[in-house]
Amino acid sequence: MTLSVTRTRIKFCGLTRPADIDRAVALGVDALGFVMWPQSRRSVTPETLATLAAQVPAFVTRVGLFVDQSAEFIEQCLPHLDLIQFHGDESPAFCEQFGRPWIKALRMRDGLDLHDAATIYGGAQALLLDAYRPGVPGGTGETFDWSRIPATLAKPVILAGGLTADNIARAVNDVAPYAVDVSGGIEASPGVKEADSMAAFVRHVAQADIR
Ligand SMILES: O=C(O)c1ccccc1NCC(=O)[C@H](O)[C@H](O)COP(=O)(O)O
């Protein structure tokens, strides 16, 4: 019998507290997301981003989340980011202009064709697939029908939306995504991560990776 191990990358999103960053880094999380959209209950200011990002060690990716924000604001945040995550209706040309790796978040509304999206956002490093709730650009804590994700897609898939320690093993087994992204599922309250939930999430991903 051959044992195959695929390491699913993990991104924790909506970090606001130094202690949560330390914990995530200690757990071996690959990427940390900072919500730069002021309407979010998890948002941080550019000043706080600078402080938090300085705490992140090498080889852990600092990701900034934006929702239809100005190029000037994004530029202001860029010195503290390794990668940009776009959650709005940004055009591919808008996303490209920063000369920085970027990913596009897509909400799985009815009729969305992921093959078309992979072509349209051809410059993206990956597509982050999230649940669709009208008027809410992300962080809903809701899952979507994972069977809508094609087995082969021209872009790596980052699975998001309502993931928790309880459903993450099934998600990894069913979807085999490049990476998984969690926010609400590891929280005590918006922006406040919970140590045991973070550890359980990482442990369940690692266990699901051994198949
Ligand atoms: O978290 C927010 O408040 C938010 C606001 C605006 C755009 C994106 C936002 N969050 C994105 C994420 O946290 C994740 O990429 C993803 O949506 C997973 O969230 P969750 O379902 O809570 O695990």
How would you describe what is shown here?
The chain has 211 residues and is α/β, with parallel strands linked by helices. The chain has a single domain, classed as TIM Barrel. It contains seven helices and ten strands. It has helices at 18-26, 46-54, 71-77, 92-96, 114-120, 168-175, 195-209, and strands at 9-13, 31-35, 61-66, 83-86, 102-107, 127-130, 157-159, 179-182, 187-189, 192-193. The chain has an eight-stranded parallel beta barrel. It has a two-stranded antiparallel sheet with strand order 9-10. Strand 5, helix 5 (114-120) and strand 6 (127-130) form a beta-alpha-beta unit. Helix 6 packs parallel to helix 7. The protein starts with 8 loop residues before the first strand and ends with a helix. Bound molecules: the ligand O=C(O)c1ccccc1NCC(=O)[C@H](O)[C@H](O)COP(=O)(O)O. One of its GO terms (molecular function) is phosphoribosylanthranilate isomerase activity. It catalyses: N-(5-phospho-beta-D-ribosyl)anthranilate = 1-(2-carboxyphenylamino)-1-deoxy-D-ribulose 5-phosphate. InterPro entries: Aldolase_TIM, PRAI_dom, RibuloseP-bd_barrel, TrpF_fam.
